[in-house]
Amino acid sequence: MNKPIRRVSIFCLVLILALMVRTNWVQGVQADSLASNTHNDRNKYDRYAYPRGNIIVDGERVTSSDFVDGLRYKYKRSWVNGPLYAPVTGYSSQSFGSSQLESLEDGFLAGTDDRLFFRNTLDMLTGKEKQGGDVVTTINAKAQKAAFEGLGNKKGAVVALDPATGAILALVSTPSYDPGTFAGGGDADTKAWTDLNADANKPMLNRALRETYPPGSTFKLVTAAAAFENNVFQNIDDKTETPDPYTLPGTTTELKNESANEPCEGATLKVGMDFSCNTVYGKIGADLGRDKMREQAEKFGFNTTVDTPIRAVQSFYPKGSSPDGTALDAIGQHDTRATPLQMAMVASAIANNGSLMQPYLVAQERSANLTTISQHSAKQLGQAISPATAQKLQDMMVSVVQNGTGKNAQIPGTTVGGKTGTAQHGEGNNGLPFAWFVSYAKGADNKSVAVAVVVEDGSNNRDGISGGRLAAPIAKAVMQATLTK
Amino acid sequence: MTITPQGTPNRRNTELALLAFAVLLPVLAYANVGLAIDGSLPAGMLGYGLGMGALALVAHLVMRRWAPYADPLLLPLATLLNGLGVVMIWRLDKAGKLLAKNYPAAANQLMWSALGIAFFIVVMVFLKDHRVLQRYTYISMAVALVLLAAPAFFPSRDADFGAKIWIHLGPLSFQPGEFAKIILTVFFAGYLMVKRDALALASRRFMGLYLPRGRDLGPIIAIWLVSLLILIFENDLGSSFLFFGLFVVMLYVATERTSWIIFGLLMSVGGAVVVGSTASHVKTRIDAWLDPMAAFSGKGGSDQIGQSLMAMGSGGVTGSGLGQGRSWLIGFAAKSDFIIGSFGEELGLTGLMAIFMVYALIVQRGLRTAIAARDPFGKLFAVGLSSALALQVFVVAGGVTGLIPLTGMTMPFMAQGGSSVVANWALIAILLKISDSARRPGVEPAPASET
Questions:
Q1: What is the interface pTM, i.e. ipTM, of the complex?
Q2: Can A399 be counted among the known catalytic residues?
Q3: Cβ separation of A19 and B401 shorter than 8 Å?
Q4: Looking at chain B from residue 306 to 325, which residues have their Cβ under 8 Å from any Cβ of chain A?
Q5: Helical H runs in A289-421?
Q6: Residue A56: beta bridge partners?
Q7: Using one digit for the tens of pLDDT, what is the confidence trace for A40-70?
C-alpha cells in the first residue's frame, strides 16, 4: 500500500501548493488592486488612522487632527478657522469624502504619497507614528481676512493674485461653511451635511472658482485690450466716433449708458472707461468682430480650464454671436461669463505688463519634519497683451480710480488701478445686478496685487448696487492688507 | 509493505524543545497584539503563557509515558496552530468589543482547547492499540451516519447562515461533522481492509477499466449518495466533498487501482453538476466565487469573500502586523471560517505561507506515519485521517482565498469552534498512537495478518 500512499502524499502536496500559489496570486499579484478597491473601507479608515498633515497659511496651520480614538477612525479632521478658509481647504469628512485641497492633496496629507515613502519607512523603522505631510498655501492671512470681513454677510467672492508670480493671495467665497461641522460620522454630522446641501444660499459652492457671473463692465478692459492689440486705437486719448445712444448693429435696439448726463458721446477711450460707457465699448467690440474679441478673451484665459490645483470652471466667451450680440458680449453682458478668478487674472496680466502667470494655491509640499518635497515655481501661461498695451490699460485703470467710478478704491501713496462693473442678469435682466470690482495695486518694493471682487444681490434695491460702491471698498481692504506689512 | 523497525530514537526531547517554541511563539504574538492595540503588554499574558505551557507540558508528559516513540512533530505543530488561533480570536474579540459585539470567544476557545487536550490525553491513555478500533467498523458507520444526519432534524438558526451542520442544545451548539470525520475514517479503514482484495481483483474489464462487482461497489455508491444527501439537506458542501474525497482516497490506497480515482472523479463531477444546477444555496456560493465583489454593487449575496480578498490584498506580502489590520471588516466569520483571511491581512503572504507549511507538515507526518505503520488498518486509518485534514484545509483555505467556491468548514485548530478543536486534537492523538506503534522498536507482536 505504500505506493498509493506516496501518490496520496503528492496529491496532498499539490493541494497545499495550490493554496500557496493562490495566496501568492492574491497577496502578491492582486494585492494592490484589492487594497485600493473602492469597496475596501480600510482606505477610508487609514485616512484617519494617524494625524493627517496640515494646510498652512502664513506659517500657521489652519487645520488640525483631533484624536478621537474610534474603532474605525482614530482621528477627526478639524479646522482652525473653518468658514474663512473653506474655499481653500475644502472638507475632509469621515462620512462624506473630501474636496478641494483636502481631496487633491489627500495622498500627501495622508502620508501615502510615494514621495513620502522613504520618510515613512524610516519612521516605521524608528517606531515613530506615521504622519502626513504639510501643504503650504500661497494665501496671505491678512488679505484673506480682509476679503472675508469685507464681504461680511453678503453673497460673493474675492480672488487676489500676485501678478508677478500667479500666487493666489486670497480666495474667499461667502456665505461659507465650517467643514468641521460634518467632519465626523455622527448624527450631528449627517444633519449638518444635509442642511448645508439643502441651503438655498449654497454655502458649499466655491464662488471664487466654481461660479461664473456676467462680468459686466469689468470686461471692458478686455475689449480695450483687443482694440489696442488690433491697432484700432493707439492711444488712450484717441477719440471714438460713438453716438449716444448707440443702436446695436442690425437692430433697432438702442444701447444706453447708465445716465444720459455722462460724456459718452464721441468720448475718448479713457473717458469711456472712467464713466464706464456702454456705448463706447459696445461699439468697439462690434467693430472688432466676435473672432478678434474672442481671441483676446482667450489670451486672458477665457474658454480654458485652470487648475490651481483646485479646478476652476471655464470662463466663457461665445463663439457664434451675431454683431449685436457681440456688442453686448464686449461689455460683459449677453453670453459672456467669468469666474472671479478669471477677472483677477485679467487684472494681474495688465498689472504684470501683459504677462499672464499660472494662478497657483500650493507653494510647497513638505514632509512632517519640514523637509520640502516640492516647491512651486512660477509659470507663465502666456503673453495676454503686449507691454505697451498693458501700460495703456494701466493708465486707464488708474484714471478710473482717480477720476471715474472707482474712487472708493483709492489708497493714499499707492498706485491703484481698477474697473467697476454692475452686471445685469436674470430673465429680462430683472434680477438684482452683480457688483464687480477688478483692480490692481502697486506698493513699495515692487509688491503688487490684483484683486477681483463680486458681490451678489448686495442690496435690496437696484439703485443701491454698483461695483464702485459695494465691491471697490472690499478690493481696497484686500489690497491694503496685502501691501502693508 | 511495511518498514522493518529499526532502533528508532524516541525523540521526546526534540519534541519538548519544539513544544517550548510552539508555546513561546503564540505568547509573543499575544504580547504583540497587546502592544499594537493597547500599547501595553496584555494583562493575561502570563496566565495565558503559563496555561498554554502547562497544557502542552501535560500532553508531552502523557506522551512520554503512553506513546514514547510517537512522531515528535505532530504535537508541537498542533499546539502552535491552536495557540496562534487563540491569539487571533482574542485579537478579533478586542475589535468586537469596540464594535459593541462583546463576545469572549477567546476565553471559550481556550477552554475548548483545554478540553481538546484533555480528550487528547484520554485517547493517549485509553487507546492502548489503534487496532482495537477495527472491531467497531460497522458500529462506526452507524454512529457516523447518525451524527451526520442529526443536524437535519434539529431546527437551524439564523446564525448558521444556510448550512445545517450544527446541533443546538440550549446555549450549546455542536458540530457533529467534525467527529464524524474521524469515526467515518474508522469505518472506511475497517471495511476496506477486509474488502480490498475483492475490490481490487474480483472485477470485470469494461472499456479498459476494471469494474468491481455490484456487491463490492455497493458501499461506495451508498456513501456517495449519503454525501449528496447531506449536501442537499444540510447545505453542507464542505462535508460532502470531504467524506467523498476521503473515501475515494482510501479506496485507492486499499486497492491500488487507479480506476477508482476515475470513478470517483466522474461521480463527484456528476454529483456537483446535478446539485450545482438544482440547489440555490450552492448556486449562490458559486456566483459569489465567480464574482466576489458583486455583493458590493447591490446584487445581493454575501460580501465575505470580497471582504476576505480585500483583507488579504491589504495585508500584502508582509501583512499589517498583528493587531494592526482591520479583518473585523470580514464580519462575524473573521474568527471562524475566515480566520485564514484574518491571518492573511495581519501576517501577510509570508505568514500564510508559514501557516500552510505547518499544515503541510502535519499532513506529511501523518502520511509518513501511514507508510511506517505495520498493519493495513493502521495504514488506511492514518492515510484517511491525514488526507481528511489535507482536504479540509484545502476546502476551507481554498474557499477563503477564492480558489474554489466557499463551503463553510472550519480551519482545523485555528478557527473558533469547540467541536472542531476537540475533534482535531483527538485526530492528532490517534495519529500519534499509530505512529508510536509504528516506530516502536521490535517489541511489538508480529504485524496483524494481511488478509
A1: 0.91
A2: no
A3: yes
A4: 306, 309-310, 312-317
A5: 290-299, 323-329, 340-351, 387-403
A6: A61, A136
A7: 888 888 888 888 888 889 888 888 888 887 7
